[in-house]
Amino acid sequence: MPSGTDREQVDALNTAFYEAMERGDLDALSELWLAGDNPGVSCVHPGWQVLSGRGEVLRSYALIMANTEYIQFFLTDVVVSVAGDTALVTCTENILSGGPAEESGALGPLVGQLVVATNVFRRTTEGWRLWSHHGSPVLAETNDEQDDETPA
Question: Model-level pTM?
Answer without folding.
Answer: 0.85
